[in-house]
Specification:
By secondary structure, the chain is an all-beta fold. The chain contains no helices and nine strands. Strands 1, 3, 6, 7 and 9 form a five-stranded antiparallel β-sheet that branches. It has a four-stranded antiparallel β-sheet with strand order 2-8-4-5, with no helix packed on it. It is globular, with a radius of gyration of 14 Å. It starts with a strand and ends with a strand.
């Protein structure tokens, strides 16, 4: 089993999405041969001139279920929110996704640090 460290960046995350999709995935665990992916760090930065709130949602494809990691979490102007880091990790199985949605259009840049196991 090989471990590969990766980063994933998505800029300009905004208000799109609803229901279980909850915005475009910022990461989908769909690499060929993937066994699992561990999110070891996730930072959401507010790149606008106004305060915003964000939701971060995980979708477990095999269970057809979703849950919020944070909901309506405040991110001040010029600030950031570390959603995952330190002692907290999130494990995703193949086809699981992590989504972010903001209260304002094109307002959040997301940086993920990931370890993929194949």
């Amino acid at each position: 089993m090989a471990n590969t460290f990766k980063n994933k960046i998505k800029t300009g995350v905004g208000t799109s999405g609803s229901g279980t999709t909850h915005g475009d995935p910022v990461y989908a665990a769909t690499t060929s041969g993937l066994t699992a992916a561990t999110i070891i760090g996730m930072t959401c930065a507010n790149v606008t001139g106004t305060d915003v709130t964000i939701d971060v949602k995980i979708t477990d494809n095999s269970a057809s279920a979703s849950s919020f990691v944070v909901k309506a979490a405040p991110v001040p102007t010029g600030g950031s929110l570390v959603v995952v880091g330190g002692n907290q990790k999130i494990v995703l199985e193949n086809a699981d996704t992590i989504q972010v949605i903001s209260s304002a259009a094109s307002s959040i840049d997301v940086t993920l640090s990931i370890m993929e196991q194949t």
